[in-house]
Amino acid sequence: MNDFELGGTLISLIVALPLVSSALALVLRRHRVWRDLITLSTLVVVTAASVWLAIEVESGGTIVLLVGDWTPELGIALVADLFAVLVLPVALATIALVEIFAIGQRASSTGADPTVADPTLLVLTSGVALSVLTGDLFTLFVAFELMLVASYVLLTHQGRHDQVRSGMTYVVINLFASTLFLFGIAFVYAATGTVNMALLVDRIAELDDSVRLGIGVWFLVVFGTKAAMFPLFSWLPDSYPTAPTTITAVFAGLLTKIGVYVMIRFHVLTGMDDLGGLILIIAGLTMIVGVAGALAQDDMKRILSFHIVSQIGYMMMGLGLFTVAGVAGAVLFLVHQIPVKTVLFLTAGLVEHERGTAALGRLGGRVSKRPFIAAMFGLAALSLAGLPPFSGFVAILALVDAGIDVSSTVIVVVALVGSALTLLSMVKIWAGAFWGTDPEPADPDAGEPAPRPATRRERVGRTTMTASTGAMVALTIAIAVFAGPLFDDSTRAADDLLEGDPYVEAVLGRYELCCADDDEEAGQP
């Protein structure tokens, strides 16, 4: 098996296996052990396959899998380039660790309904992988719809009134974005004769400036809605906190980041640098409005939900600079954000699991009672705020340095102010939830019955939840330790995207090789 065949097999496995396993998990949804085994083993396998794929791409270059015997204009190509394999292993590892947390949560208490959540999570996993690997706009639309359907089920499957209400807002806004996406695809095909991103690199550049910029703005709105950029973010702070902890953690770590990922890929590959000024303005507003919303909240999950919005602004800042250093900083920031945001929501879930609330006014004293949980939150919070030596510091430093290089002083100042306000909001959570004293201490004279001692299964469940969160913290630390090599790879990925030719040559070269093989098999010269 040559490198292309091996790479194609890995790509097929990563995209298809979760869908097959979701059907099997649904059939066996009432058999707890088999359902959990199928779900977790699938996530471990696709994570390992993504790491293997990353090694193959690192050593041999971009790998392209052609699906079906179609012409390049209409064909489906799955492309694993350096940008894709920097994001994909981190994303899949995050889902796997959250599933371990979910298994522990179900053992120690009630959580998301596993008969629904596990099969649907696998569908979401396939949608995430397909979004990262696809090389054409229509398949990207299909991947987004997979994620939308799965995420709506995960948000509302418990049937609570607040979940259904916020879930309706979520699905209506995202369906509106999907409708815009479909019209955008139709317009691009009418203007260029293709939806293949490798062909669009040159064909969009040949269009009139007004048409080309119109396409850029249209897809900025589409992908910006998915990413929750300003002013298209209102659906996020209300919908995410109502979901079970494990679901919120996956959404926080991945869904908006996938929106930014495809925004970077599309707008950089198609040379939309004329939109740089507009993107920088939106980036600055997204940073400040998001962190201001966080400071106004008094619930851990709502504070962290607004920070999802704020941090999107930093990734858009790197895109808006349209330089190798800026895009590289955005790529590194994206990789760092996935595990950090997940850790913060998992630690909030651990606090809520123990106290029954995430409201800061009803918490306190966790640092003395649960020092390990406090330490995990503290490490992730410092990274989110961009303090050294954590991964967030390296990512923000890369973006600030890129902004200074092109004299974008305003956005650099806004980014630094946003980072300072982020630290202030993290201090607010620390002071309210972890520092001080418990506002509701146990009263031995109140005549209340002593709490029931935890069963062995509950203790194992709590240990599993804490261990999976600790593993996620270890992932964030690993990103900080290997920030140098990761930034080098991010720079190479950014250079390939801005140049465009490496991506085009890999995809179209694969089509030419496939056609040559077909002619040879048919006996044609």
Write the layout of secondary structure elements.
Elements lengths: L2 H25 L4 H29 L2 E5 L8 E5 L1 H27 L5 H20 L3 H20 L4 H32 L4 H7 L5 H19 L7 H5 L5 H25 L6 H20 L4 H22 L2 H32 L10 H4 L1 H15 L5 H15 L3 H26 L21 H26 L1 H17 L1 H21 L4
Helix pairs in contact: 1-2, 1-4, 2-3, 2-4, 3-4, 3-10, 3-13, 3-18, 4-5, 4-10, 5-6, 5-10, 6-8, 7-20, 8-10, 10-12, 10-13, 11-12, 11-17, 12-13, 12-16, 12-17, 13-15, 13-16, 13-18, 13-19, 15-17, 15-18, 16-17
Into which percentage range does the β-strand content fall?
under 5%
Q: What string, H for helix and E for strand, traces the elements in order?
A: HHEEHHHHHHHHHHHHHHHHHH
Q: Which strand order spans the largest sheet, edge to edge or round the barrel?
A: 1-2
Helix fraction? Answer: over 70%
Mean pLDDT: 88
- Which radius of gyration do the C-alpha atoms yield? 23 Å
Rounded to the nearest angstrom, the distance between the terminal CA atoms is 26 Å
Summing up helix and strand content along with how strands pair, one would put the structural category as: mainly alpha
Q: How is the main sheet built?
A: 2 strands, antiparallel
Shape: globular
| Quaternary form | single chain
Number of strands: 2
Low-confidence parts, pLDDT < 50 over ≥5 residues?
A: 442-450, 518-525
Number of helices: 20
